[in-house]
Specification:
The chain is an alpha+beta fold. The strands form 2 sheets. Strands 1, 2, 3, 4, 5, 6, 7, 8 and 18 form a 9-stranded antiparallel sheet that branches. It has a 6-stranded mixed barrel with strand order 9-10-11-12-15-16. Helix 2 packs across helix 3 and helix 5 packs across helix 6. Helix content is 21%, strand content 32%. It has 2 domains: 155 residues, D-amino Acid Aminotransferase, Chain A, domain 1 (2-Layer Sandwich); 170 residues, D-amino Acid Aminotransferase, Chain A, domain 2, CATH 3.20.10.10. The protein has 6 helices and 18 strands. It binds pyridoxal-5'-phosphate.
Protein backbone atom coordinates (compact mmCIF):
# COMPACT_ATOMS: atom_id res chain seq x y z
CA UNK A 1 0.00 0.00 0.00
CA UNK A 2 1.30 3.47 -0.83
CA UNK A 3 0.56 6.12 1.75
CA UNK A 4 0.68 9.79 0.94
CA UNK A 5 2.24 10.92 4.23
CA UNK A 6 1.61 14.58 3.47
CA UNK A 7 -2.13 14.11 3.16
CA UNK A 8 -2.67 12.24 6.45
CA UNK A 9 -4.65 14.15 9.04
CA UNK A 10 -5.53 13.06 12.58
CA UNK A 11 -7.66 10.30 11.06
CA UNK A 12 -7.71 6.53 11.13
CA UNK A 13 -5.78 4.76 8.39
CA UNK A 14 -6.26 1.01 8.42
CA UNK A 15 -3.05 -0.69 9.63
CA UNK A 16 -2.10 -4.24 8.60
CA UNK A 17 -2.52 -5.64 12.12
CA UNK A 18 -4.04 -4.83 15.47
CA UNK A 19 -2.95 -6.55 18.69
CA UNK A 20 -5.26 -8.30 21.14
CA UNK A 21 -4.79 -9.82 24.60
CA UNK A 22 -7.62 -11.18 26.74
CA UNK A 23 -7.93 -11.35 30.53
CA UNK A 24 -9.98 -14.11 32.15
CA UNK A 25 -10.91 -13.40 35.73
CA UNK A 26 -13.13 -14.35 38.62
CA UNK A 27 -14.22 -12.59 41.76
CA UNK A 28 -12.69 -14.04 44.91
CA UNK A 29 -13.15 -12.61 48.41
CA UNK A 30 -14.21 -9.28 46.93
CA UNK A 31 -11.13 -9.07 44.68
CA UNK A 32 -10.53 -9.89 41.04
CA UNK A 33 -8.08 -12.70 40.23
CA UNK A 34 -7.22 -13.90 36.77
CA UNK A 35 -4.68 -14.26 34.01
CA UNK A 36 -3.73 -12.45 30.84
CA UNK A 37 -3.23 -14.31 27.58
CA UNK A 38 -0.17 -13.53 25.46
CA UNK A 39 -0.79 -10.64 23.05
CA UNK A 40 -1.24 -11.70 19.43
CA UNK A 41 -1.51 -9.91 16.09
CA UNK A 42 -4.55 -10.22 13.85
CA UNK A 43 -5.50 -8.61 10.56
CA UNK A 44 -9.19 -8.72 11.54
CA UNK A 45 -10.11 -5.24 12.77
CA UNK A 46 -13.48 -6.31 14.10
CA UNK A 47 -14.23 -8.02 17.41
CA UNK A 48 -17.02 -10.36 18.44
CA UNK A 49 -18.60 -8.95 21.54
CA UNK A 50 -21.61 -10.00 23.59
CA UNK A 51 -24.38 -7.39 23.41
CA UNK A 52 -24.41 -7.26 27.23
CA UNK A 53 -20.65 -6.72 27.58
CA UNK A 54 -19.92 -4.30 30.44
CA UNK A 55 -18.09 -1.91 28.09
CA UNK A 56 -21.30 -1.50 26.07
CA UNK A 57 -23.77 -1.52 28.95
CA UNK A 58 -21.91 0.52 31.57
CA UNK A 59 -18.99 2.19 29.80
CA UNK A 60 -16.41 -0.05 31.45
CA UNK A 61 -13.57 1.00 29.16
CA UNK A 62 -10.36 3.03 29.20
CA UNK A 63 -7.93 4.08 26.51
CA UNK A 64 -4.54 5.66 25.88
CA UNK A 65 -2.67 7.52 23.15
CA UNK A 66 1.06 7.52 22.38
CA UNK A 67 3.37 7.88 19.42
CA UNK A 68 6.40 6.38 17.67
CA UNK A 69 8.65 8.75 15.73
CA UNK A 70 11.06 8.00 12.87
CA UNK A 71 14.13 9.98 13.92
CA UNK A 72 16.75 11.95 12.04
CA UNK A 73 19.04 8.88 12.29
CA UNK A 74 16.38 6.63 10.73
CA UNK A 75 15.68 4.89 14.07
CA UNK A 76 12.21 4.57 15.55
CA UNK A 77 11.57 6.03 19.02
CA UNK A 78 8.52 5.23 21.14
CA UNK A 79 7.90 8.08 23.58
CA UNK A 80 7.39 7.26 27.30
CA UNK A 81 5.13 4.25 26.74
CA UNK A 82 5.73 3.13 30.34
CA UNK A 83 3.87 6.26 31.51
CA UNK A 84 0.90 5.34 29.31
CA UNK A 85 0.97 1.84 30.79
CA UNK A 86 0.87 3.34 34.31
CA UNK A 87 -1.95 5.70 33.41
CA UNK A 88 -3.99 2.89 31.87
CA UNK A 89 -3.48 0.92 35.11
CA UNK A 90 -4.85 3.89 37.11
CA UNK A 91 -7.85 4.18 34.79
CA UNK A 92 -8.45 0.42 34.99
CA UNK A 93 -8.41 0.40 38.82
CA UNK A 94 -10.79 3.38 38.90
CA UNK A 95 -13.32 1.46 36.79
CA UNK A 96 -12.81 -1.89 38.56
CA UNK A 97 -11.04 -3.43 35.56
CA UNK A 98 -7.95 -5.64 35.50
CA UNK A 99 -4.92 -3.36 34.98
CA UNK A 100 -2.70 -4.65 32.15
CA UNK A 101 0.81 -5.23 33.57
CA UNK A 102 3.46 -2.83 32.23
CA UNK A 103 5.41 -5.69 30.64
CA UNK A 104 2.34 -6.95 28.76
CA UNK A 105 1.43 -3.42 27.65
CA UNK A 106 5.00 -2.86 26.35
CA UNK A 107 5.05 -6.22 24.59
CA UNK A 108 1.76 -5.41 22.86
CA UNK A 109 2.97 -1.96 21.73
CA UNK A 110 6.23 -3.41 20.38
CA UNK A 111 4.35 -6.14 18.55
CA UNK A 112 2.00 -3.52 17.07
CA UNK A 113 5.04 -1.61 15.85
CA UNK A 114 6.91 -4.61 14.43
CA UNK A 115 3.82 -5.90 12.59
CA UNK A 116 3.13 -2.48 11.04
CA UNK A 117 6.58 -1.13 10.19
CA UNK A 118 5.41 0.02 6.75
CA UNK A 119 3.10 2.47 8.56
CA UNK A 120 5.85 4.35 10.38
CA UNK A 121 6.07 7.66 8.52
CA UNK A 122 9.49 8.81 7.28
CA UNK A 123 11.41 11.54 9.10
CA UNK A 124 10.60 15.08 7.99
CA UNK A 125 7.03 14.31 6.95
CA UNK A 126 5.91 15.47 10.41
CA UNK A 127 3.70 12.36 10.52
CA UNK A 128 4.00 9.70 13.24
CA UNK A 129 2.70 6.26 14.12
CA UNK A 130 0.00 6.72 16.77
CA UNK A 131 -1.00 3.85 19.06
CA UNK A 132 -4.45 3.72 20.59
CA UNK A 133 -4.46 1.14 23.42
CA UNK A 134 -8.00 0.24 24.42
CA UNK A 135 -9.17 -1.72 27.46
CA UNK A 136 -12.74 -3.02 27.45
CA UNK A 137 -14.95 -5.05 29.76
CA UNK A 138 -16.21 -8.10 27.86
CA UNK A 139 -18.24 -10.00 30.50
CA UNK A 140 -21.96 -10.27 29.59
CA UNK A 141 -23.80 -8.67 32.49
CA UNK A 142 -27.13 -6.91 32.76
CA UNK A 143 -27.18 -6.35 36.51
CA UNK A 144 -25.34 -3.11 37.27
CA UNK A 145 -21.76 -3.92 38.26
CA UNK A 146 -18.27 -4.55 36.89
CA UNK A 147 -17.32 -7.52 34.74
CA UNK A 148 -14.51 -10.00 35.30
CA UNK A 149 -13.19 -10.41 31.73
CA UNK A 150 -11.35 -7.79 29.77
CA UNK A 151 -9.48 -7.27 26.57
CA UNK A 152 -6.51 -5.05 25.75
CA UNK A 153 -6.44 -4.01 22.11
CA UNK A 154 -3.72 -1.92 20.46
CA UNK A 155 -4.78 -0.04 17.34
CA UNK A 156 -1.84 1.50 15.48
CA UNK A 157 -2.46 4.12 12.81
CA UNK A 158 -0.23 6.64 11.04
CA UNK A 159 -1.32 10.22 11.65
CA UNK A 160 -0.35 13.39 9.88
CA UNK A 161 1.41 16.42 11.33
CA UNK A 162 -0.83 18.29 13.74
CA UNK A 163 0.18 21.58 12.15
CA UNK A 164 -0.45 21.25 8.44
CA UNK A 165 0.64 24.81 7.79
CA UNK A 166 3.35 24.98 10.46
CA UNK A 167 3.27 25.57 14.22
CA UNK A 168 0.27 27.91 14.71
CA UNK A 169 -2.36 29.17 17.18
CA UNK A 170 -5.90 28.16 18.13
CA UNK A 171 -8.65 30.12 19.92
CA UNK A 172 -10.72 28.97 22.90
CA UNK A 173 -14.06 29.87 24.42
CA UNK A 174 -14.66 29.48 28.17
CA UNK A 175 -17.40 27.02 29.11
CA UNK A 176 -19.35 27.26 32.38
CA UNK A 177 -22.45 25.45 31.18
CA UNK A 178 -21.32 21.85 30.72
CA UNK A 179 -19.12 19.97 33.19
CA UNK A 180 -16.65 17.54 31.63
CA UNK A 181 -16.01 15.71 34.91
CA UNK A 182 -17.07 15.96 38.56
CA UNK A 183 -14.53 17.12 41.18
CA UNK A 184 -14.29 13.63 42.70
CA UNK A 185 -15.34 11.81 39.55
CA UNK A 186 -13.32 10.29 36.71
CA UNK A 187 -11.71 13.39 35.16
CA UNK A 188 -8.20 12.26 36.10
CA UNK A 189 -8.67 8.95 34.28
CA UNK A 190 -8.66 8.37 30.54
CA UNK A 191 -12.05 6.75 30.23
CA UNK A 192 -14.49 7.04 27.34
CA UNK A 193 -17.34 8.46 29.44
CA UNK A 194 -15.41 11.71 30.06
CA UNK A 195 -15.16 12.30 26.34
CA UNK A 196 -18.77 11.48 25.53
CA UNK A 197 -19.75 13.83 28.38
CA UNK A 198 -17.71 16.64 26.83
CA UNK A 199 -18.99 16.36 23.25
CA UNK A 200 -21.95 18.71 23.63
CA UNK A 201 -19.60 21.45 24.87
CA UNK A 202 -16.77 20.84 22.39
CA UNK A 203 -19.13 20.57 19.43
CA UNK A 204 -20.93 23.79 20.43
CA UNK A 205 -17.53 25.55 20.66
CA UNK A 206 -16.49 24.19 17.24
CA UNK A 207 -19.69 25.51 15.67
CA UNK A 208 -18.63 28.98 16.85
CA UNK A 209 -15.10 28.43 15.50
CA UNK A 210 -13.39 27.74 18.85
CA UNK A 211 -12.02 25.00 21.04
CA UNK A 212 -13.52 24.60 24.50
CA UNK A 213 -11.87 25.74 27.74
CA UNK A 214 -13.44 23.75 30.58
CA UNK A 215 -13.73 25.26 34.04
CA UNK A 216 -13.87 23.35 37.34
CA UNK A 217 -17.27 21.78 37.93
CA UNK A 218 -17.64 23.05 41.51
CA UNK A 219 -17.14 26.81 41.17
CA UNK A 220 -16.58 27.40 37.42
CA UNK A 221 -13.90 29.90 38.43
CA UNK A 222 -10.79 27.87 37.68
CA UNK A 223 -9.32 26.52 34.45
CA UNK A 224 -9.52 22.73 34.09
CA UNK A 225 -8.84 21.35 30.61
CA UNK A 226 -8.44 22.71 27.08
CA UNK A 227 -10.78 20.39 25.13
CA UNK A 228 -8.76 17.12 25.29
CA UNK A 229 -5.47 18.70 26.39
CA UNK A 230 -3.93 20.29 29.49
CA UNK A 231 -3.64 24.07 29.85
CA UNK A 232 -0.31 25.83 30.26
CA UNK A 233 0.44 29.51 30.76
CA UNK A 234 3.66 31.52 30.75
CA UNK A 235 3.99 34.46 33.13
CA UNK A 236 6.94 36.85 32.96
CA UNK A 237 7.93 39.15 35.79
CA UNK A 238 10.21 42.02 34.95
CA UNK A 239 13.65 41.64 36.51
CA UNK A 240 14.29 43.77 39.58
CA UNK A 241 17.72 44.71 38.25
CA UNK A 242 17.65 46.58 34.95
CA UNK A 243 19.09 44.62 32.06
CA UNK A 244 18.82 41.17 33.64
CA UNK A 245 16.50 38.41 32.40
CA UNK A 246 12.81 38.42 33.49
CA UNK A 247 11.62 35.67 35.84
CA UNK A 248 9.63 33.25 33.66
CA UNK A 249 6.99 31.04 35.24
CA UNK A 250 5.38 27.97 33.67
CA UNK A 251 1.91 27.68 35.17
CA UNK A 252 -0.41 24.73 34.84
CA UNK A 253 -3.61 23.81 36.71
CA UNK A 254 -3.68 21.54 39.74
CA UNK A 255 -7.04 19.79 39.67
CA UNK A 256 -8.29 16.32 40.52
CA UNK A 257 -10.58 16.49 37.50
CA UNK A 258 -7.95 16.78 34.76
CA UNK A 259 -5.94 14.10 33.03
CA UNK A 260 -2.28 14.02 34.16
CA UNK A 261 -0.78 14.71 30.72
CA UNK A 262 2.49 12.95 29.93
CA UNK A 263 3.34 15.80 27.53
CA UNK A 264 2.75 18.37 30.29
CA UNK A 265 4.94 16.36 32.68
CA UNK A 266 7.72 16.30 30.05
CA UNK A 267 7.35 20.03 29.32
CA UNK A 268 7.54 20.86 33.04
CA UNK A 269 10.90 19.05 33.19
CA UNK A 270 12.15 20.89 30.10
CA UNK A 271 10.90 24.23 31.45
CA UNK A 272 12.86 23.68 34.69
CA UNK A 273 15.91 22.84 32.54
CA UNK A 274 15.45 26.20 30.82
CA UNK A 275 15.53 27.94 34.20
CA UNK A 276 11.78 28.59 34.37
CA UNK A 277 9.87 28.40 37.62
CA UNK A 278 7.25 25.64 37.33
CA UNK A 279 4.04 26.09 39.32
CA UNK A 280 1.05 23.77 39.52
CA UNK A 281 -1.87 25.40 41.25
CA UNK A 282 -5.47 26.35 40.71
CA UNK A 283 -5.60 29.07 38.04
CA UNK A 284 -8.57 31.46 37.95
CA UNK A 285 -9.94 32.25 34.49
CA UNK A 286 -9.37 35.98 35.08
CA UNK A 287 -5.66 35.31 35.68
CA UNK A 288 -5.41 34.84 31.91
CA UNK A 289 -4.94 38.62 31.82
CA UNK A 290 -1.56 38.21 33.57
CA UNK A 291 -0.16 35.67 31.12
CA UNK A 292 2.28 36.42 28.35
CA UNK A 293 1.58 33.12 26.57
CA UNK A 294 -1.07 30.43 26.83
CA UNK A 295 -1.26 27.01 25.21
CA UNK A 296 -2.84 23.57 25.22
CA UNK A 297 -0.56 20.54 25.41
CA UNK A 298 -0.91 16.84 24.66
CA UNK A 299 0.44 13.94 22.61
CA UNK A 300 -1.36 15.00 19.42
CA UNK A 301 -0.06 18.57 19.20
CA UNK A 302 2.81 18.68 21.77
CA UNK A 303 1.97 22.38 22.28
CA UNK A 304 -0.88 24.25 20.65
CA UNK A 305 -0.40 27.96 21.36
CA UNK A 306 -3.53 29.97 22.09
CA UNK A 307 -4.03 33.36 20.42
CA UNK A 308 -7.20 34.30 22.28
CA UNK A 309 -9.68 33.13 24.88
CA UNK A 310 -13.24 34.45 24.76
CA UNK A 311 -15.09 34.61 28.07
CA UNK A 312 -18.59 35.42 26.79
CA UNK A 313 -20.19 35.19 30.28
CA UNK A 314 -17.92 38.01 31.47
CA UNK A 315 -17.77 39.95 28.20
CA UNK A 316 -14.01 39.60 28.16
CA UNK A 317 -11.47 38.61 25.53
CA UNK A 318 -7.94 37.63 26.55
CA UNK A 319 -5.36 37.94 23.76
CA UNK A 320 -1.85 36.51 23.50
CA UNK A 321 -0.72 37.61 20.03
CA UNK A 322 -1.47 35.77 16.82
CA UNK A 323 1.86 33.98 16.55
CA UNK A 324 3.28 31.27 18.85
CA UNK A 325 5.20 32.93 21.69
CA UNK A 326 8.92 32.63 22.39
CA UNK A 327 8.66 30.24 25.35
CA UNK A 328 6.03 27.92 23.86
CA UNK A 329 8.11 27.69 20.67
CA UNK A 330 11.26 26.94 22.66
CA UNK A 331 9.62 24.15 24.67
CA UNK A 332 7.92 22.72 21.58
CA UNK A 333 11.29 22.50 19.81
CA UNK A 334 13.02 21.06 22.90
CA UNK A 335 10.53 18.20 23.14
CA UNK A 336 10.38 17.48 19.39
CA UNK A 337 14.19 17.44 19.27
CA UNK A 338 14.15 14.57 21.80
CA UNK A 339 11.30 12.74 20.06
CA UNK A 340 13.04 12.91 16.67
CA UNK A 341 16.49 12.06 18.07
CA UNK A 342 17.98 15.45 17.20
CA UNK A 343 19.31 15.95 20.70
CA UNK A 344 20.46 13.81 23.62
CA UNK A 345 17.56 12.08 25.38
CA UNK A 346 18.99 12.74 28.82
CA UNK A 347 15.87 11.61 30.66
CA UNK A 348 15.66 8.29 28.80
CA UNK A 349 12.14 9.10 27.57
CA UNK A 350 12.41 7.29 24.23
CA UNK A 351 12.68 3.57 23.66
CA UNK A 352 14.87 3.31 20.58
CA UNK A 353 13.94 0.37 18.40
CA UNK A 354 16.82 -1.24 16.55
CA UNK A 355 16.70 -3.18 13.28
CA UNK A 356 13.67 -1.36 11.92
C1 LIG B 1 -8.55 15.14 28.48
C2 LIG B 1 -7.12 15.12 28.10
N1 LIG B 1 -6.27 15.93 28.75
C3 LIG B 1 -4.96 15.94 28.46
C4 LIG B 1 -4.43 15.14 27.46
C5 LIG B 1 -2.97 15.15 27.16
O1 LIG B 1 -2.35 14.01 27.68
P1 LIG B 1 -1.04 13.43 27.01
O2 LIG B 1 -0.02 14.51 27.04
O3 LIG B 1 -0.63 12.28 27.88
O4 LIG B 1 -1.40 13.04 25.63
C6 LIG B 1 -5.29 14.27 26.76
C7 LIG B 1 -4.77 13.39 25.71
O5 LIG B 1 -4.46 12.25 26.00
C8 LIG B 1 -6.66 14.25 27.08
O6 LIG B 1 -7.50 13.44 26.44
Amino acid sequence: MTINWQSLGFHYTEPDYIIRAAYHGKWQNGGLVGTWDEPYATDDKTIRLHVSATCLQYGQEAFEGLKAFRGIDGKIRIFRWQENAKRMQHSARALKMAPPPTELFGKAILLALRKNLAFVPPYETGATLYFRPLLIGTTPRLGVGPGRDFELIIIPTPIGPYYEKGFSCTSFIVNRHVDRAAPLGTGQYKVGGNYAASFRATEAAHLQGFDCLFTDAKTHKYIDECSAANFIGIRCQEAEVNGSEPMVEYLTPRSRAILPSITNDSLMTLARDRGMKVTRRRIRVDELSQLKEAAACGTACVISPIDKVIDADKNTIYTFGNKPGKYCTMLYNDLQDIQYGRTEDKYGWCEVIDNC
